[in-house]
Amino acid sequence: MTLTRTTCPYCGVGCGVLAGADGTIQGDPKHPANFGRLCSKGSALGETIDLSGRLLSPKVDGQTTDWDTALDRVARAFSDAIAEHGPDSVAFYVSGQILTEDYYVANKLMKGYIGSANIDTNSRLCMASSVAGHKRAFGTDTVPGTYEDLEEADLIVLVGSNLAWCHPVLHQRIAAAKAARPEMRVINVDPRRTATTDLADVHLRILPDGDAALFNGLLAHLDSTGAVDRAYVDAHVNGFDAALAQAQAEDPTASGLSAEDLAAFYAEWTGTQKVVTVYSQGVNQSSCGTDKVNAILNCHLATGRIGTPGCGPFSVTGQPNAMGGREVGGLANMLANHLDLENADHRACVQTAWDSPTMADHAGLKAVDLFQACADGRIKALWVMSTNPAVSLPDSDGVAAAIAKVPFVAVTDIMENTDTGDLAHVLLPAAGWGEKDGTVTNSERRISRQRAFLPVPGDARPDWKIICDVAARMGWADAFDFETPEAVFAEYVALSKAAEPFARDLDLSVFEGVDYAGLEPTQWPANDRRFFADGAFYHADGKAKMLPVVAPQPRNQGLRLNTGRNRDQWHTMTRTGKAPRLGAHLAEPYLEVHPDDAARAEVTVGDLVRVSSGRGDAILRVLVTDRVAPGQPFAPMHWTRQLTSRSTVNSLVTSTVDPISGQPALKGAGVVIERFTAA
Ligand code: SF4
Predict the structure, then answer these.
(1) pTM (2 decimals)?
(2) Ligand 1 pocket, 165 CB below 6 A?
(3) What are the tens digits of pLDDT across the range 471-494?
(4) In what residue span(s) does the 4Fe-4S Mo/W bis-MGD-type domain sit (predicted)?
């Protein structure tokens, strides 16, 4: 059996996979993300590639049809809406699952040809606060870390990150490094005790959103103990005094930690030069997520612990191509190559490169706002690509109702029946993992190839091709006459050359004229340069910026629902739900409840409870465990309405977002629980 070198389609670690058409799956020993390792999800990929449930032909109004009919309908609906109501009356909602080439053409169509920036992505749900925090601190959205930094660090602080379940191979790399170098220390900052905590030397059980107070306190401690690198700050950082003054005004015990635990943590962080602070959804998915990111970045900037091996802040991305989407401007407030949509010079640069007739000149609707615009009638035509917002967004019942109100909805997906696809007027069958070619970028900015090793089933087509086919029917055939994903990638690389005066470090010159078919996993910036090693940042004066962060006050709101992921499932289980061994880990929707809360609700292990929030209610099986703190039950978000015939967990969550990033606060819904007895 010939095995094809490709990349895992699940998390942002971006592991290399050797895959065969007979379902053989092996870790790629040569891939620098995983060196042959795979986690449970990656290992089971071979069990998910059958065609059961697949959408194999286009459908219009529920009837199977041919591509011309379906594409004509989509193009006409979008053209008519734009002609009648203007470009901002239409929207695309895309996904960190699609490949960079798909993302690129979708952005080009919406921003450069339709002339709106109403294209946002489910990556808004996973890393938008990090993007905004990076831009505020560094002047660009730059993730400075590498996986090797984690292995070289003497202290790893994992904040709001269940790496063991959500980035398992990265967790394995840390575990191996710690086994080889027992003096390496790991501190886990999390309101929950998770599988990740098992690896940690210390668990700091903060209150929800207590991380802002924790890191503000660290900044004040660094100053009071003379640990601030004054020379570094003077040369390379603005905003120190204001950030410090605010930090000094805060009470670090608002984090929920005792004075003793705080003192020990601060002493260890201060006394260790090689510190990497890894953070993920516990930081990002919050109404103050961007501030929490900046509270972490402040401490690294104040000590110059950034830009050197084994050092720095490191935001790990959730999805396989969240980073690739960022690179090609996949968010409603960005342009390709990390250019700024609201900067006239940047817009002119991209418009010239695209030779486009128009250009969006203001930010589009971010995810939550986009579906609110569907609800209130502003969006007349919506195209959802390879994601399931009727399950994954907060207030997901409200989102489903909003989609149902849109006069025209197209959905591209690999599956015939999804909660979102069931609301579509036109269903477009997408080629899936293993059936199409393109590139993805992982959490450490490494661009890898996804390669086809299976025939494309039925009438399915790759996303980039479907988008180009619609663009051609809307009158822009010449600008979208790409024959291959390689041609799309070449245009993206060429655009990066044009953008060089504005984005010098998104340097893709290493990809010029590259052998796309044989492309090896390659990190940017090119030539092994390390971001910020020279102390040069991207604000106009070349300096970084520290931000004053006001820590939120601890809230007492009864039960506060924390949502997240299971080890063996991915998003809404479209693929992982097919593998019996993955289902065996945690087989049904559940709620982890502290014994005190279980006693108060008079429920015990195995009981069913109704979890209600005033927006929806979900029926979940009770797990009683002290892994969660009192008042902080936890539920995974994977199960759909189709699987349970009930509301989804995310239907319980409000649409509250971080005001800067627009990222939803998916971890803080006020809920009540009561025993449920089936009628
Ligand atoms: Fe796939 Fe992530 Fe597991 Fe690697 S760690 S095999 S990328 S799910």
Answers:
(1) 0.95
(2) no
(3) 999 999 999 999 999 999 999 999
(4) 1-53
